[in-house]
Protein 1
Amino acid sequence: MQNLLKIKLSAFMFLQYFIWGSWYVSMGTYMATTLKFGGQEIGAAYGAFAIGAMIAPFFVGIIADRYFASEKLLAVLGIFGGALLFLLPSFTTFGGFYPMLILYCATYVPTLALGNSLSLHHLTNPKQDFPLIKTLSAVGWIAGGVTLSLVLQGEKSPVQFYLAGTASIALGLFSLTLPHTPPKKTGKNVRLAEILGLDALALLKKPSFAIFIVCMFLICIPLYFYFVNMNLYVTELGWKFTAAKMSLAQVSDVIFLLLLPVMLRTLGYKRTIFIGILAWATRYFLLATSLTSADWGTMLIFVAILLHGVCYDFLFIAGQLYVDEEANDRMRGAAQGLIAFVLWGVGNFVGSTLAGHSQALHTLSKPVGTIAHDWQGIWIYPAWGTVGVLVVFWLFFREPAKKPSAP
């Protein structure tokens, strides 16, 4: 039964991230080249995911934990989200496109938390099995990008939303095959502080944990410059099959996810997270240099893409494990809710908004061939911003004391 369960959960993770990988990377290019939206509008659109992340704790805490079985709620969210994605291309003005995108993100983001909690609830050995199942997320993201790029060639087309919508409906129907997971708190009152993860604010009394949270928020500001601008950058450079080429980032993600336990065991949290932040700074300096380096430009961009595994796993996954270790059993869920709210909610919203403003400010009055933006200016600011976060983290964060092993 566990083997069958692992197969089902792996397929679920694959479909879930296939949806995300089908549209998230290329949406900025579609908005800029097809809908002719400006940089501020593109940044705001990427911030829609952040709004969904800020809504998700209410949705999961109030509805999922009290009234509905997780697999049924996943089915409803998947099918309804698919319908919204099919409607999205019909909106060609920002006033219509943006609210519809927010509504869709509010249906998709809760599936991330629900899928993880359902998996952890039913696996008998989650510490061993869940990371392996989670690698199918990266595979799904790669498959979504490759299908859009190589098969459909749809980075500039609304076909990306039809592809994601079809996968979303498939995810909803497939969710009905997952094991029954009844609501955990039927008939119980759920405090607002518990829903928002505010119980975990007590951890901020620890100076190192407070520094960690501040640095995680600050790193999100330069971080989202990559997600908002990267696909448009390589499109202006004349790249073909951009979504497929950028999916190399998820190949790197799988490799470094498998290396992460070794890094944490040998280097600890401080050095591992430091390497993750350093990788982000290196990525942006490579991108800032790539446009002016005629001979090495393409190679520098590919190196920046392949750094994604270090950037993501050594920073975010290691950070989530650090939070899990610092929290006790009573507030573990609240602590993960807090870090998710900081990373995917507030940090995402601020970072995406500023990235869109930066793109608008660096738009050239007269394009140079296919280049319509001052990309060196766009990339250099997040590079130096990341260096600032790196210095603060190294000076003030302290490695947590090792806890005695359980007998």
Protein 2
Amino acid sequence: MPSLTSVKYSNAKFRKIALICGIASAAVILAGIVIYFLIHNGVFYKREDTDRKTYELTGEMQSVVSETAFHRGYMFSRTLRLLSEDRLMDPWVLSWYVIPGATRSVPAMESAYVDSFDQILLLESYVKDGKRSKAESLIKAIDSSLTDESGYLLAYRKADDLAFGTDRKKSESSEQNEDPAYLLLSEPPVSMKATTRYLRALLDYYDKWGSSKTLDKIRTLSAKIFAGGDQTSYRAADRLAKPTPIPVTEKSLITPDPEPTPDPEKSSEEIIVSMSGTELAAMDLEAMRRAAVLFPEYKEKYENTVRIVKEGKISSDLPLYAWMHTSGGYVYYTGSKGSVELVPSLYAMVHLAEIGQLDAEGYAWVSQQIYNSGFLYTTYDMFSGAAASDVEASEAYALVLYLSVIKGDSHLFTATYNAMMRNYATLSTSDALYTFFRNIPESRISVYARENLLMELILK
């Protein structure tokens, strides 16, 4: 019969062995977690160089911003609250929201659409801010809900189709504030603008957290973009507009072919103009350049795209850009009055500026519009160069501001920033507080995702 001493000794020895085994097991588990974390975060993965270029605000620009009522960070959170959280649309942002008036007769209104380009800007913001889980969730949502069967991004989706079955209480809708093309199309078309911008966002994600899986995704998307050939683009235009694809030179333009017997009662209604070719504003040249760095086989196609965009400039007198490049030449405008849309031209300018290919004439023209009048309008006359609309192009200011950052031009930055601050909400009781807003008919205030997300990327 064993002694009490030997039993105690045996129990102590067992506990000691168990403790050592427990510590060893915990160490193995911890080591596994650490290794998984390191692998998941790409610590052991040697990323390819995408030759990313960044443009930051100069000290003088930073001072301009700090001396105003602008609140960094608040704009982004308020924009998400108004266009996503309060609308029960997470992870998406709606295109716009009109804040309610002081009485019940002036209710709030919200967009019925989720614009794909806005979601890509939101994704870029998450990546820039280091919010990896948010970025990953949005990438999964984009791939599952905003991508067609061929792998291109759709231009938009209806908000109700993306609300994941939530019984959300919606504000009123208004066709007046929607993109006319969305209202006229029965199904969302492919958007090369959103697709090439998605390539940029994925490249940025890859630079920060990417793995071989992300690189494969970029490779697949790059192949689609460079091998896509002509894509059909859509634009709303008045009923008299019918662009005819004929060969053009600088002043020999594709002109509208009026309908023989227009209905006077319907002459003011809009129609959809569709053309197949290269939409100049949709070509994110910097994203395509970086893709060609990773995959040199696309270098020639990239250079050809740059040439198409550069040669799409209308003239020295009006250095804005064509809408499309088709097999028959450039399509400069789609309306019957020969008006060129400003915002698409500014996207073409920004894309050229990012790769150092924007000519001095285009930059000078933009600067003169800001310095001379302080306002930017949605359309400009094809021949006179004068504003052809009295509607302010809110999105355009953010693009010009970014141009000034690329160029390091503090003077243009200051003038453009001050123009934007005219529509920055500072009233503490306003739902739009800390966001950039648009004045719309009937003295209403609308907050759009587009310029707020662009400004977040520029000023962050």
Protein 3
Amino acid sequence: MQIIRKILIILLILNILIQAKELEVFWNSGFPAARLVDGVIVQGEAWVWSAAVQNNKGKTDSAVFARLAQIESGSLVVLSQVARAEKSLMRLGYFEKNGEVKLYRIANRNRLVPAFDLRDATANFAEASFVYDAQDGGSNGFLMVQLLNIAGTARDFSLGGETAKDFNSVEISYKEPFIFGTNGSLKLRGMFSEEDSVKQVNADLAYIKKLGWEWQYSVGGGYKNSKAFSSLSLLYDDRDKIPLPFKGLSAELSTELSKFVVLGLRGENYQPLSQNWTLLLAAKGFGMLPSKDYEKEDLFFIGGQRDFKALPPRSLRTRAYGVSEMDFQWHGIKSSALHIFGQLGTYRNQLPFRGWEQILAYGLGWEQGVANASLAIFYTLAHQNSPMDGLLNLSLRMGF
């Protein structure tokens, strides 16, 4: 009897799981009212979407918001799209979550209206950072102004510059959304840099198109020192928010084609460990093909704002490198993050090529948000360095 009872319990659990799966299929096939009645699934009427709206009305135009949400008016209701659309909206940096999404009915037209309870985030920023290398006494400064979602139109603009002892650069970018009546955007970017009297002028234009909520591709081209090049990239991003994500994966594959081929791959995964702890696992690598002696301005920069935290800014030029990182983050205080990180990198030696070298870096960092401002402090040591010979990075970001 006990065996029969166990078999019946297993069959009952399997039946519940099967019915739950069938209900989910109905909910994602235009029948959000499907339910169980006396053990039988009643699908109810089919519904379609109306355009998504911002429940907590902000500066963003309603038509622009609907296009950003990417829920197509008149398409079958797919309830799983709501959570994906909300995460996608949060990643833009235009909004902050105020409450849960609500679904409203237009009964006589069998339509549902998803109303996202989002408020406008501070989208205009001035950011300044200073890096000091105690080992060699070098320093590096960075300043950027960023305007996001200008006048609620989803247009973005940024202007920034970087300066060090032997290096200076200025970069400007502008994004025009929904170009040619599509959901694609055009991004124009220009950069001027000078290092050791070597000047470089870059200008490129890229068409960026989202494929659903997580995937995005970019195709473009431009000029570097009067030499034409073309570029391609494919991005996957399902992080939960910006700028301090707690979970999700981001990965990008990019290539640049001219007289040589530049290949790049980067990825980062945020894995929650508890209510306040998350683990960031990240890696990236770049290389140039074919391998030969290129002009100095063609070689990669590493170090500086986006790469090894432990290397002096703009310290090395190389044709290939890779970085892996493990970063434990604690979010126990509101709008803050404590970083305990380690980085392992490998890079090709300076010309002439003398093999590969490795570097191990580790350190601590703290990010703290206060009202519309945030402060970040990082201190990084390279392996076998004295504790007083680290790299100090201070960054202040002010919203306005």
